[in-house]
Amino acid sequence: MEGVLHQIISGIATGSIYASISLALVMIFLATHQINFAQGEMAMFSTYIALTLIQAGVAYWAAFVITLVVSFVAGMVMQRTLLEPLARAPVLASVGAFLGLLLIFNNIAGWIFTYTLQPFPTPFGAGAPILGGLLSRHELGSTAVTLVVLTAVWAFFRFTKLGLALRGAAYNPVSSRLVGIPVASMLSLGWGLAAAIGAIAGMMVAPIVFLDPNMMGGVLLYAFAGALLGGITSPLGAVVGGVLMGVIENIAGAYIVGTELKLTTALVIIVVVLVVKPTGLFGKALASRV
Amino acid sequence: MNQTNSRVLLIVFVLAAGIVPLVFASGYQLFQLTLVVSYALSVLGKNLVTGYGGQVSLGQGAFYAVGAYTAAILMEHFNVPYWATLPVAAVTTGIVGLALGLPALRLGGLYLALVTFAMAVSVPQLLKYKLFENWTGGVQGIVLNKPDAPFELPLDADQWLYLFTFAVGLALFIAATNLVRSRIGLALMAIRDQPLAAEAMGVELAHYKTITFGVGALITGVGGALGAIAIGFVSPDSFSIALSLTLFVGMVIGGASSISGAIYGALFIVFVPNIAEQISKAVPGAIFGLILILFMFFAPGGIASLLSAQLRRLKSAR
Do A275 and B56 count as a contact with CB atoms less than 8 A apart? Predict the structure, then answer.
């Protein structure tokens, strides 16, 4: 029983990291109806920026903030220069652009930082596990950080005027433009936010899995599965789905299929969701516009 | 140039592509050309699904792996002759394609992209899994013998393999051309360009999409089997997500909505990395990414449409 509890709690800890990437994916999906296949590699690259800063002697939290700002701006620039012009092109064009970004980030990272695994510092200290040995300090800290981020994102969308404008631009661009919302800027703002959230997830997961250019491959897959499980049209669903995926990963790894089939577990969940309940747990049925 | 002339020219060109390398190319060059045919078939399968069917599949590398492993396992464990593995590889990949395509195709575009992406990511892990190790050879993979030319033909192993692969490839390219021109092909293009109108006219969307996805997987699988025979070795890590991305790049650069585009794409993915790798190991991937984005912006129809535009210009100038 102790074992199961441990698996569940540490599953929630990694799940909260998946949840933030799922949320970033859903945000971009809601705003543009595109799936950002480069989300993971963008997060990985941000994490390398943070590592470079820390190695250059910048304090952890300062490096953290600088990385967020850089990622935010880079995300906005990418949306403006690459994705905006392809917004009206067929679906293949945007998928192609995302895969192009994926290849570029992955290989440039390998080129500059090499493919060797690198340890990434945690700001929460090593120390002995807490809560009766159930949770490491980093797991607790990263869960707390993710929770703060998710709450902040929710509050931003729920209570600020800018958040409302962003939601409007995503749900109904035409009407939003008519009431004076600069839709294009809102979309790039959304991209910036998604990139920054991804960067946080990267910095939180790197101390656990170690940093290398392929670090986010598995994380991205679990985030996809989480987003689908929760419902690709629901930000709340993305968070719940992401956390669930963390728990499922741990339970399946410990008791059912072993860790060797970790990625296949995600594939199976994706297929099962699409067969049984394509809208996910919280999603709305997607009606295609005629 | 009239219709018959251009047809004669095409036949001469195809024959030359089959025979000239046998005379002039070295063993390694022949091996590269054999790989070109193998990749061209995989890209062709992708073109049918994505270019003609309008469904974005990112997992063609997974079907390539299924084809390659089917051939390798049959040759290694059942002593099946190499040529006889091809139909089995075709059927197996076709079935796998249908099984995975069915749920996603019902839902349309991006869901298929997601499922196939997940599939491509998880393939190496499945191939390494210990339950299948007796068949797949686990991390070690399977080493195969290169087949010799039959009937005491005066060809060495590389030459024979190129000729064999070329012949199979040619047959499948002709079949694909006919498929695209048939009722199914027309229905597909109608679905891609005007789904609503097509459905209103009684074209069954899901039916045709699923068939194409199966056929696309099948052709890619044959490409994979030919690739395994040519390389003489299969191992899990040669079928990572990178392979699927490479095939995607080949499709876009060659031209997704054309049959001949598959050949340009395959030539590109076999020969360009060799050149780019001289700069750095990581450069080919980055260049692939950059070229991918540039093509999306400036030549979404790929090399095939650039070439046909050029041809038209030449004709009208005359």
Answer: no
Name the 3-class secondary structure at A115: coil
What's at B159, amino acid-wise?
Q
Q: How far apart are CA B180 and CA B47, in angstroms?
A: 11
**Confidence band (pLDDT; 50, 70, 90) for B240?**
confident
Residues in B closer than 8 angstroms to A91, CB to CB, are 56, 109-110
Cβ–Cβ < 8 Å for A32, A83: yes
Beta strands in chain B (DSSP E): 142-143, 233-234
Chain A residue numbers touching B107 (CB-CB < 8 A): 274, 278
Helix axes A262-276 and B109-128, enclosed angle (nearest 10)? 150
Summarised one tens digit per residue, pLDDT across range B104-147 is 666 666 788 888 888 888 888 887 777 777 777 767 777 777 77
Q: At what angle do helices A39-55 and A2-32 cross, to 10 degrees?
A: 110
Backbone φ and ψ of B203, nearest 5°: -80, 125
Q: How far apart are CA A140 and CA A123, in angstroms?
A: 11
Residue A130: beta bridge partners? A135
Contacts of B113 in chain A (CB under 8 A): 35, 37, 95
The whole-number pLDDT of residue B127 equals 77
Instruction: With H, G, I as helix, E, B as strand and everything else as coil, classify residue A118.
Output: strand
Interface size, chain A vs chain B, as Cβ–Cβ contacts under 8 Å:
137
Q: What is the DSSP letter of B145?
A: P
pTM of the predicted protein model: 0.85
CB atoms within 10 A of CB B309: 12
Q: ipTM for the complex? A: 0.83
Kindly state the average pLDDT of the residues A166-194. Answer: 84
- Mean pLDDT in chain A? 85
Q: For the segment B144-167, what is each residue's pLDDT rounded down to a tens digit?
A: 777 766 776 676 777 778 888 888
Cβ distance B75 to B144 under 8 Å?
A: yes
